[in-house]
Amino acid sequence: MSSAPVYDLSQPLATLLREGTKQAHTDAETSQGARLLLGGQLPKDEYVRFLMMLWYVYDTIERGLDRHSTYPTLEPTYNPTLLARASTLSADIAYLLEVPEDQWKAHPIHKELVTPRLPEALETYLSRLQALADSPDPSPLLAHSYVRYLGDLSGGQSIKRIIAKAYGLESEDNKAGSDLGVSFYVFKELRSANNASIGEMKKIKDWFREGMNVAGERCEDEAKLTIVEEASNAFRLNMGIFNTIRTPEETKPATKERSQVSKRRGESVAEQEPPREASWPLSSVAAVIAAVCLGHFVLVVGGFTGDKGYQKLLFVERWLSETFLKTATDAN
Questions:
Q1: Would you kindly state one Gene Ontology biological process term found in this protein's UniProt entry (predicted)?
Q2: Which residues on adjacent β-strands are paired with residue 27?
């Protein structure tokens, strides 16, 4: 049984946080969800679903920080104009879904995310953040700011390029600086409204670390230890979010889910009803076999992939069904 780590609480808080979260940081970075994200391998819908979960996280963190903006340990790093991410996440989600920003919560991807309830890992994360915001000492919220904001600042530009390439966002507009669909990864300079370069982002991180050290000087050793321990917990909670990311294989609708997928694609209820049991003459059975063989051939060579291909397939299925029904009726 491993013993609890021993910290030299005389060190600056930023140093304590860096040293105290090394293992948790490594675990989070090597999770399957993180690898898929950083490899640009997530289907676009799944990436949007991930952004929606992040929006809930940042919205909860930032409402807590706004609520306690003057608290001694939170005030030194409080700068929503510079750091806040909920608004950029909302803009990116809307752009990727091609809907007005005030309507993305009505999109089927979001409805699926919240029905019947949010994923358990996300609920656990949000509950923890809310409990800290409601506690007499909200200082541990600083640990969540540290994990999220410094993480975004450290890898923001690299991830931005990966995401832009993966989802076709490398347009002339984005090259001109509008950052459509990837604004979450873009920060402004410390003292201007210009987009921050990698060098400027380092300045922001240094500013944030200095603020954390000031916060550490304003609290007792016990509170410093609580913040460090909460940072490791924040990494674990983030890893829980990564673990809810579904692989490309998991996002493919299974056969048994076909009727539900068909409903979302606009088929009528009548078309989804299972066929009634019936006895068919041999000639009709032969017709079915021929139709299946034909259908398989057309499926393979006819390009029935993607949404357009799926609609083509539905048309052929209906045609085969009507033909078969007529043949069976005539035979009977």
A1: heme oxidation
A2: none
Residues 268-326: tens digit of each pLDDT: 333 444 444 434 344 443 333 333 333 333 333 334 344 444 444 444 444 444 443 44
Q: What is the 3-state secondary structure (H, E, C) of the chain?
A: CCCCCCCCCCCCHHHHHHHHCHHHHHHHHCCHHHHHHHCCCCCHHHHHHHHHHHHHHHHHHHHHHHHCCCCCCCHHHCCHHHHCCHHHHHHHHHHHHCCCHHHHHHCHHHHHHHCCCCCHHHHHHHHHHHHHHHCCCCCCHHHHHHHHHHHHHHHHHHHHHHHHHHCCCCCHHHHCCCCCCCHHHCCECCCCCCECCHHHHHHHHHHHHHHHHHHHHCCCHHHHHHHHHHHHHHHHHHHHHHHCCCCHHHHCCCHHHHHHHHHHCCCCHHHHCCCCCCCCCHHHHHHHHHHHHHHHHHHHHCCCCHHHHHHHHHHHHHHHHHHHHHHHHHHC
Is 68 marked as a binding-site residue? Answer: no
> Is 18 a known ligand-binding residue?
yes
- Looking at the whole model, is its pTM more than 0.70? yes
Nearest 5 degrees, angle CA 215-CA 217-CA 219?
75
Do the beta carbons of residue 267 and residue 310 sit within 8 Å?
A: no
The terminus-to-terminus CA distance of the chain in angstroms comes to 76
Tokens matching residue 158: 């690299």
The reply to whether 149 sits in an annotated binding site is no
d(C-alpha 161, C-alpha 54), whole Å: 19
Tell me how far apart the alpha carbons of residues 6 and 17 are, in angstroms, rounded to a whole number. 13
Task: Mention every residue, 6+ apart, whose C-beta is less than 8 A from residue 313.
Answer: 299, 304
Cβ burial 119-157 (10 Å sphere, 16+ → b, else e): bebbeebbebbeebbeeeebbbbbbbbbbbbbbbbeebb
Burial of 31 per CB tally in 10 Å (0-12, 13-18, 19+): middle
